[in-house]
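okkk here we go again. third time trying to get the zinc ion bound version out, last two times i messed up the smiles copy paste (missing a bracket lol). double checked this time i swear
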Amino acid sequence: MAKKKRIRKKRQEEQKGLVQPRRQTAEAIARALAQLPVNETAQWLRQTAVLHMQQQGGNRHTLQALGQGAGHALGVQLDEEPTLDPDAPLSTEGLAIEDRALPGHGDLGPVAAVQRQNGAPPPAAPARPAATINLTVNPPQIARLPEATIAANHGRANVAGWTTPVYNIQPAARTANSVTLNVTLDFRIELATEFTDGRLDILRDHEQAHVIIGERVARRHLVNGLDKGLEALPNFSSIPPMQAAIRKAVNNFVRDEGAESQAYDTADYPRMREAYFGLRAPLPDLAAASPTIQEMVDATNDFIGHASAINSSEPENPDLLRLAAAMRQARINLSQTDLPRLQYNPEFKLMIESCRGMLNVLVDSVAEAERPFLVDLLLILDSFEWQAAP
Ligand SMILES: [Zn+2]
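finally!!
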């Protein structure tokens, strides 16, 4: 009986971590844990091992043992008391992106949270840690520089424009349960001073797509991906796993932004070549070189000629609708080479503008049944304005 009592007492002391007979086992598990690869099976093993250690030695013991090897990986910061108020403000030092001194460790995803064993549940705390990421995208800053300067800035010959995304991540607040990060995205666009008027329009429009790509990829990785990566951590008590999540998000952002910009350039350079060509060439020359451009020019001229002669008191205009349909068909018939040649051609742009002016007036005066056809034609005219859709 006395022996049983002693054993029970010893067990209780072990539970409280007062004696350490099982420390060696726990340390061995912790060492093994630290060497596990980062994959799902290893994660399951890790979770099981941590639970096992907790059952055997209690939390304090588990924390101490994990401190030998896997503490950072498990998001356990040993110099912070684990019973700390999860909503108490913690330092955000080390979470800014400027800090490059990151330990090389991938993210492990959710790991068994170390829970208190002695009775009372922890104070009301969210079941999962919550990350809030605010993204601010500033309007691009445009710098006009000589072509040679832009080329020298980026170590590349023959570049007339360059868009550089600049990202910045600053921590705003941190507790064990919540973290707020402010991500700012800026763009510096360099445009050659040698480019003016229509050439400048083509160049600027192209660069604008890089801004769209940068913002899209930033939302994917610096907002959604980072949010997911941080919320996969058991808590925010420890800085290094958070730094690893930030670094992973940044790496993904840099990689995808580079790849998608490259793919966009490859696809868009042929279009730009046609646009530059169409800008300089007289419209009759473009039409002579392409039957579909000729069809587009003729259909537009026919429509303008008819529309300008319309008496606004006429209730119905079957010819107008026929000519609108012809324009619509001509637009559909334009090839991928035709369209960029027309989009920046000054003469064609003028025709489209006068056509738009007439349509805007006619839309209000024609019969109700005819209106949708004219609205449709207005949308077709809009398609002659090149839109970046990277
Ligand atoms: Zn580009």
